[in-house]
Amino acid sequence: KDCLARNMSKMIKIQPQEYCFIPRTWIFPAEYTQFQNVMKELKKKRKQKTFIVKPANGAMGHGISLIRNGEKLQAQEHLIVQEYLDKPFLIEEYKFDLRVYILITSCDPLRVFLYNDGLVRMGTEKYH
Questions:
Q1: Residue 109 pLDDT exceeds 80
Q2: Cα dist. 122→50, 61, 117 in Å?
């Protein structure tokens, strides 16, 4: 997760208009201070946001939590922290994610093959 977050951050800097769909993301411990500065600004404005916290090396949803008080997070932990999307896209009131598989055979010129098969994972409970 941390490699993906790092690469998406690079792409946002290069092409911000193309990558505006990515929620703000911080990679701990390197970006802990930037995250705490955002938390201080929110507190000044009397605003509250929800963040999703994921272990950098986690899998299958283990260790994921939602927080509103980022001050409780430790600077030395290896985490990915993202703004939580309160109004996600839904399919018939269920959250979902798509797994699309590609093969990149060349970067210059760019040559990408999209596999016909993919995966849709659906939530088991309706989203409120």
A1: yes
A2: 22, 14, 16
Question: Nearest-CA neighbor of 43 among 74, 26, 68?
Answer: 68
pLDDT at 60 over 80: no
Residue 14: CB atoms within 10 A of its CB come to 8
DSSP string, 60-100: TTTT-EEES-GGGS-TTS-EEEEE--SS---BTTB-EEEEE
Q: Is the dihedral of CA 50, 55, 56, 60 positive or negative?
A: negative
Q: Quick one: which of 115, 93, 96, 118 has its CA closest to 105? A: 115
Which residues sit opposite 83 in a β-bridge? 51
Q: Are 96 and 123 in contact (CB under 8 A)?
A: yes
How far, CA to CA in Å, does 20 sit from each of 11, 43, 83, 86, 106?
10, 25, 13, 16, 26
Instruction: Give the SS3 label for residue 9.
Output: helix
Question: Global pTM?
Answer: 0.74
